[in-house]
Amino acid sequence: MHVKKTITLPKELEIEVEDYLIGTYYSNLSDVIRDGLRKILVEYRRKNEVEIAATLYKEGKITMREAAAIMNVPVRKTLEELGERGVYLRYGMEELEEDIG
């Protein structure tokens, strides 16, 4: 199902899209807009997953491995992304037992 919408673009943006994208990567402006919206949704969903995982981990409600699962990335990448948000490794007995066991 498709919904028809009307949008207003700055002329400069339309020209750039036509010059660089249409004909080379996309067949028309609608395809460009659809693909752009999909990419934005993916990006913001990802940011939301990271924020949820960071909050839960910081509050001690989940482990680092659980945060990695929420973010759908390896633990090493989770450490990096949480560190960028000022949330650092909390390594307690539960994590130690999980790593050993």
List the helices and strands and how they pair.
Layout: H1 11-20, H2 29-58, H3 64-71, H4 75-84, H5 93-100
Helix pairs in contact: 2-3, 3-4
Shape: elongated
What is the averaged pLDDT score?
Answer: 91
Distance between the termini: 50 Å
Estimated radius of gyration: 21 Å
Largest sheet data: none
Features:
101 residues, mainly alpha, single chain
Summed up, what is this model?
Helices cover 65% and strands 0% of the residues. The protein has 101 residues and is mostly helical. The chain is elongated, with a radius of gyration of 21 Å.
If you had to describe this structure to a student in words, what would you say it looks like?
With 101 residues, the chain is an all-alpha fold. It has one domain. Helices cover 65% and strands 0% of the residues. It has helices spanning 11-20, 29-58, 64-71, 75-84, 93-100. Helix 3 (64-71) packs across helix 4 (75-84). The longest helix has 30 residues, at 29-58.
